[in-house]
Amino acid sequence: MKLLIKSAVKIFIIFSTALYTSISLAQNKLAIVIDDVGYHLKEDAAILAMPREISVAIIPAAPHARARNQEAKSQGRDILIHMPMQPVSAVKIEDGGLHLGMSSAQVNDRVNTAKNIVNYAIGMNNHMGSAATADPQLMTYLMTALQEKHLFFLDSRTIGKSVAGKIAKEQGVRSLDRHIFLDDSNELADVQHQFQAAIQYARKHGTAIAIGHPRPNTIAVLQAGINNLPEDIQLVGMGNLWRNEKVIPPKPFILLFTEMPAPTSMEPFEPVGLLRGIPK
């Protein structure tokens, strides 16, 4: 009898250990979003050849935006509208972007136009936008439009004083923040370093959101990195994170309670300079 009990206990311990290990290995999530999709055939094709968990952010004004939208959808890949927004600098943005001083109707019209082009998008993130995302009025208009269309928002955090995420939650829009830029420097060693930084961030916080661009060095690092991803890191699409994001419903009256920020919205953010304008 004692032998049977000991055997049962041993089996239970082995099973419990295996179960705990399998759960723990899957708990660290890494989401990668590739911005500026729709301009370059070769680089876009390389991105779309990667696992479908790599999300793509398509600029509506890009010449191949509609085609990339269809291709990504056919793969079951998460798609974002990469919306051009006014930066602090005088860098020109693409047609159809958002500028300071726009009315609610103008913002809504631009969002509608973008969604008609990138019609399979489940969310939006900002292309540049260091001035736009820091403007409460413009962000209120934008989040109202996104809420009506049931679109999520990813703040690329091109400026530290962005109010986009805060206003998104106030308007009932699911919103998350970028944690790591993979290729603000295009040097291969720097991109490799940032990819490892994303893995370490995921291990520390449980989730990491990294943004990159369809460039040769970024593509090379992602191809190698994804093929050798550590067992404790799970590659996920943005939809996986947004669906689990708690949202504060919009309230017409005074908020009685405060909400702690989601783990993916906490600092520190990787410092980043002013980003480039229209891709060359």
Automatic annotation (TrEMBL):
InterPro entries per record: Divergent_DAC (IPR006837), Glyco_hydro/deAcase_b/a-brl (IPR011330)
Gene3D superfamilies: Glycoside hydrolase/deacetylase (3.20.20.370)
Domain of life from the UniProt record: Bacteria
GO biological process terms on file: carbohydrate metabolic process
Pfam families: Polysacc_deac_2
Name of the protein in its database record: Divergent polysaccharide deacetylase family protein
Organism of derivation: Haemophilus haemolyticus
